[in-house]
Design goal:
Length: about 90
């Protein structure tokens, strides 16, 4: 089994957010560290698209990364189409 190396860090967070996070962690049967770890994994696997014409809610695409770039398949395909159009194809 692969042993995961953990790094200890100090975070400076809003006490109300910490309280909510602790409640969430208890509800999900995780430690606070595990909850934050999971949140970071989700965040880092979200599509980076901020293209206004894609009409994402809050101008932020919620899809998960699909191909080996930082975009979901949908935004990746749209961007390819837009590039082709911009080039006059
Ligand atoms: Zn996307």
């Amino acid at each position: 089994m692969e042993e995961k190396v953990k790094q200890r860090i100090n975070l400076f967070l809003n006490p109300e957010k910490v309280k909510k996070a602790k409640i969430m962690a208890i509800e999900e049967n995780l430690s606070l560290s595990q909850l934050i770890d999971k949140a970071l994994d989700t965040y880092s696997s979200q599509c980076r698209c901020r293209t206004v014409v894609h009409n994402h809610k809050n101008n932020k695409c919620k899809n998960l990364v699909n191909s080996n770039d930082e975009y979901c398949a949908e935004c990746h395909d749209k961007a390819a189409d837009e590039t082709m159009r911009a080039l006059g194809h």
